[in-house]
C-alpha cells in the first residue's frame, strides 16, 4: 500500500511536470504573436478587415490596417513610417517605393483587379442609358459636378481621368470635378447628394448603400486597374510573408471574390 502511494505520487509529479512544461511552451509560443501594420488602399477596406479577422483567428497575430489613398500611404512609407506590408490601388505608387529601395526584393506581386463605374445617389432619377457612361455624363446639367478621387494623385481619380480623356469628355468636365482625398471620399460626396454623379471602383459602388451604379466604363478606356502588394524593407519579414501568402490563399480570395474584386493571379494553395 505504501509502495502504491509512492508510485501514485511519482505519477502525479510527472504529470504535473509535463503540464507545466506544456503550459510554458504554449505561453512561449503566444509571446511570439506578431503585430503587423498593413497600409492598404481605401478601396480594400471592407475586404481587408474581414480577411484580417480570419487571419487573426487562425494565427493569433494582430493585423493593424491603415486605409487611405495609395499616394498618401506611399509617401508615408517613403518617409520611413513603420509598415510591414503595402497594398496599392495602382502600380505607379508601388513603382515609386521600389525606386526608393523600400520594398523587400522579390515580394512584390499583383494581387487584385477592379473596374470603374459611374454612380449616382440611390434615389436619383438618372438611368444608365443602356450602360453608356458617355450618354449619362452628357445628359447632366451643364453646371453639374462629378466626384472622383483627386486625379493629381489618387489612383481612382487617375483612372477616371484616363477614362474621361479617352472618351472625349475630360475637357468638358475638368473644371467641374469635385475631388476626394481618396475613392471613399468621392463615394461619400455622391451618397450625400453633394454631386449628382461620381466615378468610383465597381467594388465601392457594390457595398455603398447610398449610391447605385448606372454604367460601367469600358476596360480599354483606362489602364488596367491592378493592385500590387509587397513587403516593406525593415518590417517584420517572416510574419509579413505569412500574411502576404494568406492574402493569396483560398480563404482570402473567397472574400475578395464576394466583394467583387477580380483576381490578378491564380489562388495559392492553403498552407
Automatic annotation (TrEMBL):
It comes from Tistlia consotensis USBA 355. Pfam families: SBP_bac_11. Belongs to the bacterial solute-binding protein ModA family. Molybdate binds at residues 43, 70, 156, 183, 201. One of its GO terms (cellular component) is outer membrane-bounded periplasmic space. GO terms for biological process: molybdate ion transport. It comes from the Bacteria. GO terms for molecular function: metal ion binding; molybdate ion binding; tungstate binding. This is Molybdate transport system substrate-binding protein. The complex is composed of two ATP-binding proteins (ModC), two transmembrane proteins (ModB) and a solute-binding protein (ModA). Keywords: Metal-binding, Molybdenum, Signal. Residues 1-19 form the signal peptide.
Amino acid at each position: 500500500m505504501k509502495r502504491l502511494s509512492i508510485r501514485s505520487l511519482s505519477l502525479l509529479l510527472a504529470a504535473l511536470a509535463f503540464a507545466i512544461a506544456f503550459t510554458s511552451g504554449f505561453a512561449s509560443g503566444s509571446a511570439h504573436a506578431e503585430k503587423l501594420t498593413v497600409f492598404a488602399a481605401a478601396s480594400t477596406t471592407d475586404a481587408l478587415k474581414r480577411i484580417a479577422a480570419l487571419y487573426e483567428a487562425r494565427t493569433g497575430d494582430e493585423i493593424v490596417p491603415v486605409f487611405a489613398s495609395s499616394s498618401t500611404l506611399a509617401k508615408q512609407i517613403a518617409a520611413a513610417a513603420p509598415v510591414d506590408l503595402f497594398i496599392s490601388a495602382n502600380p505607379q505608387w508601388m513603382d515609386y517605393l521600389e525606386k526608393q529601395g523600400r520594398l523587400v526584393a522579390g515580394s512584390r506581386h499583383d494581387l487584385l483587379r477592379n473596374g470603374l463605374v459611374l454612380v449616382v445617389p440611390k434615389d436619383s432619377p438618372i438611368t444608365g442609358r443602356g450602360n453608356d457612361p458617355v450618354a449619362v455624363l452628357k445628359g447632366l446639367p451643364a453646371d453639374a459636378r462629378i466626384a472622383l478621387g483627386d486625379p493629381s494623385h489618387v489612383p481612382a481619380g487617375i483612372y477616371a481621368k484616363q477614362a474621361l480623356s479617352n472618351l472625349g469628355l475630360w475637357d468638358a468636365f475638368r473644371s467641374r470635378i469635385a475631388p476626394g482625398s481618396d475613392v471613399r471620399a468621392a463615394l461619400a460626396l455622391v451618397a450625400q447628394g453633394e454631386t449628382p454623379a461620381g466615378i468610383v471602383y465597381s467594388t465601392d459602388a457594390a457595398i455603398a448603400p447610398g449610391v447605385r451604379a448606372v454604367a460601367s466604363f469600358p476596360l480599354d478606356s483606362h489602364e488596367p486597374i491592378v493592385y500590387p502588394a509587397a513587403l516593406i524593407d525593415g518590417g517584420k519579414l517572416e510574419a509579413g510573408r505569412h500574411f502576404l501568402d494568406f492574402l493569396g490563399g483560398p480563404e482570402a480570395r473567397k472574400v475578395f471574390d464576394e466583394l467583387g474584386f477580380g483576381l490578378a493571379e491564380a489562388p495559392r494553395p492553403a498552407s
